[in-house]
Each structure stands twice: as C-alpha cells, then as structure tokens.
Amino acid sequence: MDQKLSDENYKTIEAFALSKMSDLKSVSHNDYHVIRVRDNAFKIAKLLGVEERIDKNLLATICMLHDFTYSVRKPNIYTYIFEGRIERRMIRSLLKRFDIPDETKEIIIDAVFRHAHSFPFKKLNKKHGLYTKILQDADTLDFFDVSRVNYFLTNQNKSFFKSLRKAMANALLRYGKNNLGLFLNYPVLAKTFFENPSMKQKDRFHYYEYGINNSETLLFLPGYADSGLMYQKLGRSLSKDYRVLALDFPMIHDPEKIYDLTSLTNFVDDFVKELRLTNFTIVGFSSCGLVAISYTYNRSDKVKELILLNSVPRFILSKVNRKIYQFVKPFILLRPILFIYSRINTNKTFRKIMKLPHTSTFTRERMRTYYYSATGTAVNLIGESVFARFKKIKVPKKIIFFKDDTIIPWERYQRFVEKLDCEVVVFSEGLHADKRIYWEKLKTLWLKTPKIEFQDVSIEKSK
C-alpha cells in the first residue's frame, strides 16, 4: 500500500489514545481492549499473508482509535447505536493535529466508522478496504477474549434482571463462538485464529514501548496485579533519552493459572531473548522486584543495573514466620479462599475500618477480576526469599523506598535494607506508586530535572 504513517506520528497517537483509554474501567473499551485489538490485527495480517500490503503503523493507529468514542461518552444505547457516526466526527477533528496526508486520514476515518455491529448483527464490510475488514475482524475476535468474557460474567449484580441478562449473554456468546465465521469478513479466521501454533510465542508477550530508537534500554516490571501501563507517563517522559519497555506479566491475561518465581523469571528471560535485549537496566516494582532479582542473578551478563522500586529481597523477615507461611500457603492457594480474600480485601468499607493501606481502583479491579491467577501468584511470591542471590549479584544495585508507603513500610525494612551491599534512596512521599509526585521523583533517577527533595541513606557495606 502507498499509504504510510511515520513512527513519530504513530507513537504520538498511541500515547495519546492510551492515556485517554486508561481511565476506563470496562475491559470492553479500555486501553487493554485497543491493545488486544491491535495485536489481533497484526496476527490476522500474518495469517492472511497480507503483511506486505499493509503499513503496520497505519493499522495500529486505526486499532488505537477505533473505540475513542468511549473516552468521552458513557456506554449506553445511544452511544452503541450511533457509535460509528460519533467516532467519525471525533476522529476527523483529532487527526487535524497531525501532518498526515488526507488520503491516509480517510482510511483511518472509514475504518473506525464501519467497525461496529458485526456481532451479533452480521453488519460486515466485505466490499470495503483491507484495513476496514481487518479492524472489524480483530475487534470481533476480541469479543470472545477470555479476560473480556470473564470480566463481563463476574461483574453483574445479583438482581433478577442482572441474572437474566447474564444467562442471555452466556447463550449469545456460545452461539457466537460456535458460529464465529458468520460474523467475520474473513470466515477462515474462525478456524485458524485460535489454533495457529506459530503465533503462540509472540502472543505470550504484552508490553509497552517508548523511545524505540534510543540505544540505552530500561525494562520495567509491574506489580502482581498491575500492568506495564502503570509506567506510561514515566515512559513518555524518559522516551527522549531511553528506550523504555514495560512488560505485562501473564497472570493478568490468563485468569486460570497461578505462577511462581521460577516461571515468571523464565517468562522475563524469554521476553529478553525475543527482543534480543542486552546491556539493559531492569526495574522491578513491589513483589515482582523478586523476579527482577532472580533474573539478574541468572543472567547478569545481560543486565547493566538492577533497580528495585518499593521492594526488597525478602518480604517476610523472620525465619520462623517464613516457615509458618510456607505451611499455610497451600490452604491460602485454594480457589475458594482466594475468591473470598479478594472480595474482602478489595471492599472499601472493610479496608477503611481495618485501616488497610491505600490501593488504586485499577489494582482493586484487577485483584477481583483475576483473583485466582494474580492473587495466587502474589501468595507464591511473598513467601520467597532471594536474599542470598541478591548478595551474589555483581552488577550495580539500587533500592528505592518511599517513607509514606504503607504496603512496604520503610520503618519495617530500614535496618534490613541499610545492611545490603547496594545504593539506597528514600523519598519523602509517593506512597506505593499512588501519588503523582511518586513518578515525578522517579524521573530524577534518570533525567536532569529541577532538584526535588530526597534523602540518600547511609549504607553499611556488608563484609
């Protein structure tokens, strides 16, 4: 195709779209949805053998913008019926900001205008352009994504009408999946999309990238119930000087599997091999800082520096308590227990009464939706100790703490941390990545910005 979109234009549009969609709670229209649709579109292009006929930046841009309506309008019947028309008006206005040829703009506008209502109304675009057909099929296939289906089915109120709606939705989903080819511009995808083994390795990884042309690389790992999107603002800030990669862990995409430290370490290793990363800085947040330590210990030849954010090599400091925890862990990992715990632990009233640490709405939603995979993985990680491995790591190491963090309290871990053979930096406020100032202060680790108050802790080197 002659129509192309520059890397610069795509990255700007992607960052803008994700920043708008990230505030939406529903997995049917939020940032995770548009990213899944983009990945689906790339996979469709490969399966159909049309990769040479499309521009990947243009296709990705179409996917990023296809549900932009829901960033400003609430999902309701009016929005659903007139989604295409609203979308066309909004995208036409938005694209005026960019130096994009008019013909390319019309391809984007036409695709987002026509993408809706394939399922269950069979309103297809078989006589329209390649981009339009790929987007619609990518969006339709995401309708049957397991995380989206699970979210819908587990977030219904317990009234009679909600239960009836849930039963009807279940029947409709079964019908759609059994007759998927009827709702696709390319019916062959109904047989090949979910069964193509050559795509599995690539599809394992969900990640976000900023500053793709920079040579110095930072790899960020999120917390157990978070996504790489938690780093999006930091990534954009650092993108002028660094290539920033923020990886999703698999437990927020596969709700039926609990992971442990070894499997997550291997996951990171596979990702590094897939992208052929070398001489990079790895940054691990909270409980998944243990994964960063484990990976660095195994592959120190790849790592330039190890940084822990609100994390330590050992969360349960007492040896006796660790033994007790290992004894009760199999009981905690039972599915009913994880379900009950997730509901209690994410209840606002309960947390307020018990004066539990603050958690973001996004994290609470993840803890509820992925109660088995995400919370179960956290249970596995909390009981781990990588203290011995941390001491043996020779690359530069740094631990970042925030004094007001109530989840990983500085007061509890101060004596332990100050005896580690590494650099320690303690900021005055930021909580557990829950304040805007948290990210502003993290910028000072990599960028030359106006001085922000922080405290360098005196370090007692271990002998």
Known CATH architecture of the largest domain: Orthogonal Bundle
Order of the strands making up the biggest sheet: 1-3-2-4-5-6-7-8
Major β-sheet, in short? 8 strands, mixed
**How do the SSEs run, as a string of H and E?**
HHHHHHHHHHHEEHEHEHEHHHHHHEHEHE
| Beta-strand content bin | 5-15%
Question: What does this protein look like?
Answer:
This protein has 22 helices and eight strands. It is α/β, with parallel strands linked by helices and 463 residues long. It has two domains: 7-195, Hypothetical protein af1432 (Orthogonal Bundle); 204-317 and 382-456, Rossmann fold, CATH 3.40.50.1820. It is globular. The relative contact order is 0.08. Keywords: Hydrolase. This is Alpha/beta hydrolase fold protein. Residues 26-153 form the HD/PDEase domain. Pfam families: Abhydrolase_1, HD.
Secondary structure layout:
Layout: H1 7-21, H2 31-48, H3 56-65, H4 77-81, H5 83-94, H6 102-114, H7 130-142, H8 146-154, H9 160-178, H10 189-192, H11 200-203, E1 207-210, E2 217-221, H12 232-238, E3 243-247, H13 261-275, E4 280-285, H14 289-298, E5 303-309, H15 319-332, H16 335-345, H17 348-353, H18 361-369, H19 373-382, H20 387-392, E6 397-402, H21 410-418, E7 423-427, H22 436-443, E8 455-456
Parallel strand pairs: 2-3, 2-4, 4-5, 5-6, 6-7
Antiparallel strand pairs: 1-3, 7-8
Helix pairs in contact: 1-3, 2-3, 2-7, 3-6, 5-6, 6-7, 12-22, 13-14
